[in-house]
Amino acid sequence: MHGPAESGWLLAALCAGTGAYCLLRMRSGVEEQRRTAGGEALMGFGMAAMAVPAAVFAPPAWAWGGYAALFGAVALRALWAARTGAHHLHHLVGALAMVYMAVVMAGTPAGGHAHGTGIPLLTGGLLLYFAGYVLLAGARLVPVPAVAGASGAKGWGDRPELARACRLSMGIAMVAMLLTI
Length: 181
Description:
The structure is a single chain. 68% of the residues lie in helices and 0% in strands. The chain has helices spanning 5-25, 31-51, 61-81, 89-106, 120-140, 160-180. The mean pLDDT is 84.
């Protein structure tokens, strides 16, 4: 993405750290959590790669097509999974947003800014969606009283509050990335 190098590096680090944590979550004993964590790890690492400042590394022109194809496949998988549960629709929107950003960046000259290109209405809609998602995810992190007798011995992959924090940070990163295109 384009913008100040410092914020690009911070965004890349946030997304890579989130992706790494999602890899840890793949050790969960619950199959659905492992699958979700794998998709979120891919999204985190993909966002990290896209967030590296263009002044440091400008990917070759074909890379943006590769990103679009990869996240297009992720979107198809999320669409297929959405038939069993509506919670997969968020993954579909996220993957389609990544496809959109890759297409916009493919049409941007190397080293230039993408402002004014693309479809502003779509960018605005995605910004509204992810801003709302961030607010909702942040509200879900508000602590609730502990249930009496609840076991505190959970593995890293089975900590719902950490998974929510992971999703919140990726939502914030998506807003930041959409603002820079």
